[in-house]
Amino acid sequence: MTDLATTPRIAPIEPPYKPAIEAMLAKWMPPGSPIAPLALFRTLAVNEELMARMRPLGAGILAHGRIDPKEREIVILRACARAGAEYEWGVHVMVYGKPLGLTEEQIAATVTGGAEDPAWSESDRLLVRLVDELHETCTVSTPLWSELAGRYSEQQMLELVIVAGWYRLLSGVINALGIQLEPWAARFPGQP
């Protein structure tokens, strides 16, 4: 793993925000959220146009998916963990993983375990294997594809691959820009 930046390489914008930025940040956050706009979102806001183009896919993955939200979070957490993006992993653990019922063992296994970890069901193991193969080879082997196709529709298969890729992309952005951890977010197992 390469060195991760210990300070932001691009500083997130700070309030007061321009009205257009404030409106965009509000769209990126859950309605009525008591949490301040995330450092990731405030960093993306440095390039308003790019941020606006990214939102539809990110929002669509989280709000309009065809896969079970708990399964989606296994894919997201594993993709972030494999890419070393503790920031995004920790946000997703707190905002989605725990509320959706992922156990402490499952959450830890996204970072420290493999597909054979006892925390996973047979179907969960397929998702971990999918993320691992995509991370390591940038493709999916024919045997794993066949196993997944026995459980998921083509629409869901496409979504699973896109979700893994989207969160790999975000992980790279987060790591490259040195986005600092949210104080309320979870930390990788074994971290203070």
Top keywords for this entry?
single chain, 192 residues, mainly alpha, 2 domains, 9 helices, 0% strand
Short description:
This protein is mainly alpha-helical. It folds into two domains: 45 residues, no CATH class; 109 residues, AhpD-like (Up-down Bundle).
List the helices and strands and how they pair.
Elements: H1 19-28, H2 39-44, H3 48-63, H4 69-82, H5 86-97, H6 104-112, H7 122-137, H8 142-149, H9 154-177
Helix pairs in contact: 4-5, 4-6, 4-7, 4-9, 7-8, 7-9
Describe the structure.
With 192 residues, this protein is an all-alpha fold. The protein folds into two domains: 19-63, no CATH class; 69-177, AhpD-like (Up-down Bundle). It has nine helices and no strands. The longest helix has 24 residues, at 154-177. It is globular and about 50 Å long. The model has no long low-confidence stretch (mean pLDDT 96).
Separation of termini? 20 Å
Structural class: mainly alpha
What about the largest sheet? none
Beta-strand segment tally = 0
Mean pLDDT, to the nearest integer, reads 96
The quaternary structure here is single chain
Strand content: under 5%
CATH superfamily of the largest domain: AhpD-like
* SSE string, helices as H and strands as E: HHHHHHHHH
Q: Which topology of the largest domain does CATH recognise?
A: AhpD-like
Uncertain segments of ≥5 residues (pLDDT<50)? none
User: Rg, please?
Assistant: 17 Å
- Just give the CATH class of the largest domain: Mainly Alpha
Total domain modules: 2
The total count of helices amounts to 9
CATH architecture assignment of the largest domain: Up-down Bundle
Q: Give the fraction of residues assigned to helices.
A: 55-70%
